[in-house]
Write a structure and sequence with these properties.
By secondary structure, the protein is α+β, with helices and mostly antiparallel strands. It contains 43 helices and 22 strands. Strand 10 and strand 11 form a beta hairpin.
């Protein structure tokens, strides 16, 4: 394959390579030790070295080098004066020979005409890079269904939009873009970061580019001429597209690409995103389809978010309870085998690989084609038939199964060795309370003892009645028929049993089984104890919040009126906060953990909490509760779709969302009586978040008549609260139907009862068709709107903070924020966390803006780069090497809206320390300090003295009430200041007058400085704020400013107003097209007209 040309320094490397073919310009070399028939010792050593290296460092056996003519080649192992450029590397000699023939046939004759070595090298580099680009296009096109058409579309995309080379075209669609009532037929191109449209009709060209980061909403519309259109809404404009061949596919890809881009740009750490999607150059249409399927499988089976989807195969599984084969789909991931029937929810099966003993092929017959037998540890076997590519599937599964068993055995050996040496007890940190001596001793004992049983066994409020015994008998019958454990068949029958309520004696076991938390517990033996021990005694923000909420968790339950329950709750919450610091602790986790502790052992409760927070409710408990807000937005759309009367009465459903948010965050635990709330948790562990959506719709549907008569949000809240808290006195298994005379819809609110069994059954019957796939698609689309709402809030807060500090208009400040944010997205500092670098510019990002936003044209590019480095050092004064928006806005405000003295002051500060380095060619930290202080850091001082001086400077910087005089400028710094002024005036229409004026000012300032050097101006010495010897030539800022004010051309130059929006137009076009030249005047006029 062709590689990007790079220079190779061959130090003693000629002994590792053997030249096979050569000419005046190229060498074909073979790695010693590869392809040799004889066993020479050097070849064996080199071959062994290449073999033990990992795949990333392994050297390919062949390469072609371009040798620059005239190089002094020495075959001595000591003299190093050889430079080559590596052009191509291949693992097969046939491929290398094919490339060699191409080079000799197409390049050899052309290279002989070059006389300059640099031109020759540049020509070869350009040719090879062109071959690489063509090869990449070919590979990208080969991945599509129609490679030739995609290659043609890719060429048009690059030609029409001139986006950066890194921009990856994902797919394209033929459609119409509507402008009013006029359709424009063209092509919609979807790339990794932009959505682009191009149309050329009747001699008129229409094209536009919209970054995904600017899209705030996507929706389907069907009205008038635009039948089945897709509406794309940005902050500035609304675009509508129609006449797709497949609107559903186009809408799905649009939503998916936009969702991925926003999650990557706005919150790559807070939201879970597959790592492969962070690499935009690898995204294609097939990957999007696989990612959508993966998200669906993870949500359907509630698998860990790190699971990767491997195989998807249609098959049938033998279901003993039905005595037949059930057709469906088999999904295989890293650690699971998952089966789902064709109709979602009819029959599902989950087989963790840790439970599997063997996967074998059976003899194929006409009745049982391509059977596969999966045996599990509970001495059961599952039969799958009609599997396509059975051999490959079984081989892949067997490899993963063997690797998993090996890892488990190694882990258990380590655990057993540790346990034999030093057992690890459970601990928790001390919780301060006012207890007596005896109570304190008892409390300490409780803190060092983990509960081996569920709290409900010790604090049971009621004795189990006949109803509980009936439930237990029904579940035992079910276990005998459908199996017991995580690999039992999950059918509609178990759904009916869950709706009736899980018996308390089986609740903890079934929660562990239905959520598959039991697999995590078994595969992480001793993990909880280590988390408790590591978190013991730590004091963090999360532990402080946990301590505040401990006694607010089910305060009416006797288990949490006792130190035993409180200590267990503390341990579970603190251990989880230590396990997942990204989440830490969020409100409502204490209520959930309390209920889990009642029915499960302490360690089981911990893993159930892990399962809920990281699998079943992803992104719910991050720092911005994005997941819960996304589901609220999805819930609103479901209300519009399923409850149109209620949606018509409440045009703005945000009032209902404020009520229903607690339903999702606490799983109805905070709004239902305890006995009913745990029934909802039962349904949640069986059906996932789908159960909460269905139950929420059922609650609103049951109260639609009362809600439609409400006049405000408070009354609606009272109706829903009264309905949920008025539980029926008894909950029979099969409640008798109500006669017309017993209808309670007209009874007062306080006398109406809520039967939780009826409510759950109605939710399944009326809203059971709300599927996981539908919820996942809605989440993908609504996450866009939620993220953009958060982004608008962040922007409003930033502008509110900065606006009092600057004098630019609110519109210009808003545009400045957008440009600042767009620049921060272009490159990311991978060495910093998302929180650290969010909307801050590093040096490279700031300099890319600096050279484009300057109101003056600096003639020398090198000098511009130097000034950019100085400005960055001046602005990043808080030692983090990043520029915040506030610092950026104040700098921009000085350039465009500042008074003359403020602009001169800024230029003055750029030519004194810390902005000006002692030696700008020497990048050492001591000579180029990034620390912002009023004193330079001298090398001669000891470390302690430097530290003391830095502390003094920090104390001085806090005194901001009085504006401090600037340090004096020495002669070297003044010369640099003059050079900067000369570069600013170069190319100006009044260049001659400005040069003459600055010459006059320079002469005047030099005279003033010389007079001060001779000690004739005593007042100048009073402004010294840094250690300067008495004999140095110095000048003050006031003297320079006074001298500049004597020349009217200089005053006019710095006071000349500059329109800021033209600079924004320039920077916007440049960022979008990655240009290095100024935009055309027509482009600026278009932008100016748009803004007006």
């Amino acid at each position: 394959m062709w590689l990007n040309p790079e220079e190779v320094l061959l130090k003693n490397a000629l002994k590792l390579w053997i030249t096979e073919r050569s000419n005046d310009y190229f060498l074909l070399q073979r790695r010693r030790g590869h392809g040799e028939s004889t066993g020479k010792i050097t070849g064996l050593l080199v071959g062994a070295l290449d073999t033990v290296l990992d795949s990333n460092a392994r050297v390919t056996p062949f390469r072609i080098l371009h040798q620059i003519p005239g190089s002094q080649i020495s075959w001595d192992a000591v003299v190093i004066s050889v430079k080559f450029m590596a052009c191509v590397s291949g693992a097969a000699i046939e491929e290398v020979n094919r490339h060699w023939d191409w080079l000799t046939r197409n390049l050899l004759h052309s290279l002989s005409v070059f006389e300059n070595k640099d031109d020759l090298a540049s020509f070869v580099k350009g040719k090879v890079k062109g071959l690489i680009a063509e090869e990449l296009r070919g590979r990208q096109a080969a991945q599509e269904d129609d490679p030739e058409r995609f290659r043609e579309a890719l060429l048009k995309f690059e030609l029409h939009f001139a986006l950066p080379p890194t921009e990856k075209l994902v797919t394209y669609f033929s459609c119409c873009c509507w402008k009013g009532r006029v359709p424009r037929q063209g092509f919609l191109y979807l790339s990794s970061n932009h959505v682009c449209f191009y149309s050329f009709l009747l001699g008129k060209e229409v094209k536009f580019v919209i970054p995904w980061a600017e899209v705030v909403r996507l929706e389907r519309v069907s009205s008038g001429l635009m039948h089945e259109a897709v509406r794309l809404v940005t902050r500035q404009k609304v675009r509508e597209f129609s006449m797709f061949l497949n609107r559903d596919e186009a809408f799905r890809v649009l939503a998916q690409l936009c969702d991925i881009a926003l999650r990557r740009l706005l919150d790559s750490e807070g939201l879970e995103l597959d790592r492969t999607l962070l690499q935009t150059t690898t995204i294609n249409k097939r990957m999007l389809e696989e990612q959508a399927l993966r998200e669906y499988v993870l949500a359907l089976f509630r698998l860990p978010r790190s699971e990767r989807l491997h195989e998807v195969a249609s098959c049938s599984v033998w279901t003993p309870h039905a005595r037949s084969h059930t057709a469906g789909t088999l999904y295989t991931t890293d650690q699971y085998l998952c089966f789902c029937s064709r109709e979602e929810g009819t029959c599902t099966l989950l087989l963790p690989l840790c439970e599997v003993l063997s996967i074998e092929k059976a003899e194929s017959t006409s009745v049982l084609p391509n059977p596969v037998i999966v045996s599990v540890r509970s001495k059961k076997a599952f039969q799958f038939i009609e599997l396509q590519d059975r051999e490959e599937l079984v081989e892949n599964l067997s490899v993963r199964l063997r690797a998993l068993h090996w890892r488990v055995s190694v882990f258990r050996d380590k655990r057993s060795s540790k346990r034999s040496t030093s057992p690890m007890p459970y601990y928790t940190f001390y919780y301060d309370t006012s207890l007596s001596d005896e109570e304190e001793i008892e409390e300490q004992v409780l803190r060092n003892t983990v509960n081996s049983e569920a709290l409900m066994t010790a604090f049971h409020q009621n004795q189990p009645g006949s109803l509980e015994k009936v439930k237990e008998r029904l579940w035992e019958d079910h276990f005998s028929e459908f199996g017991r454990g995580v690999h039992m068949f999950r059918t509609e029958k178990i759904q009916r049993l869950v709706a009736m309520g899980i018996p308390e004696s089986l609740r903890g076991e079934l929660w562990m089984t239905l959520s598959d938390a039991c697999s995590e517990l078994e595969s992480h033996e001793g993990y909880y104890s280590s988390m408790v021990q590591k978190s013991m005694g730590q004091s963090t923000l999360a532990t402080d919040e946990i301590e505040r909420d401990l006694h607010r968790s089910l305060p009416d339950h006797p288990a949490f009126q006792n130190p035993t329950g409180i200590a267990a709750l503390r341990r579970v919450l603190t251990a989880y906060a230590h396990r997942n610091p990204k989440i830490g602790y969020c409100q409502s986790m204490n209520i959930l953990a309390s209920v889990l502790l009642l029915y499960a052992r302490e360690e089981e409760a911990f893993w159930l909490l892990v399962c809920v927070c990281e699998r079943m409710l992803p992104d719910y408990f991050n720092r911005r509760v994005i997941g819960a807000q996304v589901d609220q937005s999805v819930f609103e759309e479901l209300i519009h779709e399923r409850l149109p009367d209620l949606a018509e009465h409440f045009p703005d459903l945000s009032s209902l969302s404020s009520v229903s948010l607690s339903w999702f965050l606490t799983l109805f635990l905070s709004v239902l009586p305890f006995s009913s709330a745990v029934r909802v948790v039962d349904c949640f562990f069986f059906s996932g978040i789908r159960a909460i959506f269905q139950l929420g719709l059922s609650v609103l549907e049951a109260n639609t008549a009362q809600l439609c008569t409400s006049t405000d949000e408070g009354q609606a809240l009272m109706i829903l609260t009264g309905y949920l808290f008025n539980e029926a006195p008894s909950v029979p298994l099969t409640p008798p139907p109500l006669s017309p005379a017993s209808e309670d819809s007209n009874l007062p609110l306080c006398t109406r009862y809520t039967n939780i069994t009826d409510l759950i059954n109605e939710a399944y019957e009326k809203f059971g068709d709300v599927s996981v796939q539908q919820i996942e698609r809605l989440r993908c689309r609504h996450r866009i709107q939620v993220l953009q709402t958060h982004e608008d809030t962040t922007k409003e807060n930033a502008l509110r903070l900065v606006s009092p500090e600057v004098s630019m208009s609110a519109e210009n400040l808003s545009d400045a924020y957008d440009l600042f944010k767009a620049s921060s997205w272009r490159q990311t500092d991978l060495g910093r966390s998302f929180t650290e670098r969010q909307y801050r510019l590093d040096r490279a990002q700031f300099k890319s803006l600096y050279c484009l936003l300057l109101p003056w044209s600096v003639s020398c590019e090198q000098h511009t780069d130097t000034l950019g480095n100085r400005t960055f050092a001046l602005l990043s004064h808080n030692h983090d090497c990043l520029v915040s928006f506030k610092e950026f806005a104040m700098w921009l405000d000085t350039l465009y809206c500042g008074e003359l003295n403020e602009k001169i002051r800024l230029l003055y500060r750029l030519h004194i320390p810390p902005a000006l380095n002692e030696s700008e060619e020497d990048p050492s930290l001591l000579k180029s300090p990034l620390l912002s202080s009023n004193r330079p850091l001298y090398v001669g001082k000891s470390y302690q003295e430097q530290l003391k001086q830095m502390l003094k400077d920090l104390v001085k910087e806090k005194e901001k009430d009085v504006e401090k005089p600037l340090p004096l400028m020495n002669q070297r710094e003044f010369i640099q200041f003059c050079k900067t002024l000369y570069s600013l005036f170069h190319g100006n229409q009044e260049e001659n007058e400005l040069f003459q004026a600055i010459a006059t000012v320079t002469s005047l300032v030099l005279q003033i400085g010389e007079a001060g050097h001779q000690g004739s101006k005593e007042e100048v010495r009073q402004e010294v704020t840094r250690d300067v010897p008495e004999s140095d030539w110095t000048i003050s800022f006031a003297q320079i400013l006074a001298s500049l004010l004597t020349e009217q051309p200089l005053v006019n130059f710095f006071e000349k107003p500059t329109e800021l929006y033209l600079a924004y137009a320039f920077i916007t076009i440049t960022i979008l097209n990655d240009k290095t030249s100024k935009p055309r005047q027509s482009e600026l006029q278009i932008y100016s007209t748009t803004r007006k």
